Amino acid sequence: MEDNISSAESIINKWDVDSPSVSYTKVTSLFYQDDDRSEALRFINTVKDLQRSLLFFISDRSSPDSHSLIVTAQKLMESAMKRLQKEFYQILSVNRDRLDPESVSTRSSLTSLNSLDDPRSDFEDDIGGSDDEINPDGDSMNQSPVPIQAESDLRSIAECMISAGYGKECLGVYRSLRRSIVDDSLYRLGIERLTASQVHKMDWEVLEIRIRSWIPATRNALQSLFHGERVLCDRVFADAPVSVRESCFAEVSGEQAIGLFSFAESVATSKFKKSPEKMFRFLDMYESISDHWEDIQSTFSYESSAAVRSHATSALLTLAETIRSALAELESAIQKDWSKSAVPGGGVHPLTGYVMNYVAFLTDYSQSLTDILAEYPLQVRAPLPESLLSTTTSSPMNGCDENLSMRLAWIILLLLCKLDGKAELYKEVPLSYVFLANNLNYVVEKVKGTDLEEILGCEWVANHEAKVRQYAANYERMGWSKVLSSMPPLDSGDRTAEEVGEAFRSFNERSRRRT
């Protein structure tokens, strides 16, 4: 044991960062002396031997030199830890770009997510591993050899420092540097930390710019950034207790992840939360989280990351509630449309175009809306004409979610009922039928040209096409009845030529008005 202390002095003093003598070891790296890391391996093994000797003399003070040997060993250990802390910092800093979360995450995909369950499987037992490393599953790891070697060096240093009781110093360096990398990555993605108060004070134009940046940034962060940090943390501290890896990863990525989800929740509770026009942005944000739900659960599976999972759940539920509120607001807006001006010539009403375009866009979010509306079936509060209700909801669905199909059919039904009321604005009954035929035909063609046809079903389309033909027939019957009445009867032999001519002029005049 005394020999271990004596042999440790030469190599540890050689790399002493506080040595007053000028040495090339003060400006170079222990881990980059040679390709096979022999000097680094020797240093690490020396420190381990020194640790065993130190523990021996602390527990057995029978030797008269025990006290002096303990003091010497402790000084050497402190010197060695300073060197390893410096090496740890240098490796992290030098490989900052090569150890970025995206690169780590990509390499991790080659070994599958087994690294999350057994982080030790990605490294060899000693720090002199080959660059052409093969993981237990047989995947080649030589696509990015330098970061792999850097990770191995970091793991060796971390294991040595933690076992020697210097884990706090090691973890402090790691947390500080990796957290700054996460912050920089999110900043480059366009993410800025904002409080709920700041979000709630924003105008929509400004807030929408933030949302546009947040959507792709969140997808990238959940898919690569945080996953890469989890993998790297598990690898570097593979030999440390699980609690160390848990707390380290939580401190590196937890606050930033919570910030992402807090922004989503702040948007969902803003003054725009009931605006139907903003619903599609809310749906985009909802899908940015829900589409990567498995990534959230696996990456932040540690108990120390429970707050992240909680914030993600809260953001998702709040966005869902906001989307349901916006949908209800759309239904209310349709019912409250009190515009009193008739569309010239019985053309398509602006409300028809707005609602049908809106409903058609909603079909792009069918799966998300199915989840959002799953536990909230349609509640009809006001009675509507049975003929319209039965026609609108008669068999559709074609395997689509019935709740979603009923909800979209209900919105269209509200529109058709409102159009019935607007048809009464026309003084001439035949023109009201032109209006109904034109608007319902627009609705049917919109359904047939989008995914709405699959959702509502062929029977819905057929029933409403029949109603279009019925409206057209009513127009022909009522619109031309007065025109035909102006024609002279078949037995008009007793009429003068002037009377017959006047009848034809009246017929032509009424025909022009009808066409």
Automatic annotation (TrEMBL):
Coiled coil: none
A GO CC term attached to the entry: exocyst
Swiss-Prot/TrEMBL GO biological process terms: exocytosis; protein transport
Domain Exocyst complex subunit Exo70 C-terminal: residue ranges: 213-509
Biased composition (Low complexity): 103-116
Region called Disordered, residue ranges: 103-146
Acidic residues bias locations: 123-136
InterPro entries to which the protein is assigned, alphabetical: Cullin_repeat-like_dom_sf (IPR016159), Exo70 (IPR004140), Exo70_C (IPR046364)
GO molecular function annotations of the record: phosphatidylinositol-4,5-bisphosphate binding
Keywords linked to the UniProt accession: Exocytosis, Protein transport, Transport
Similarity-based family: Belongs to the EXO70 family.
Function of the protein: Component of the exocyst complex.
Protein name, UniProt field: Exocyst subunit Exo70 family protein
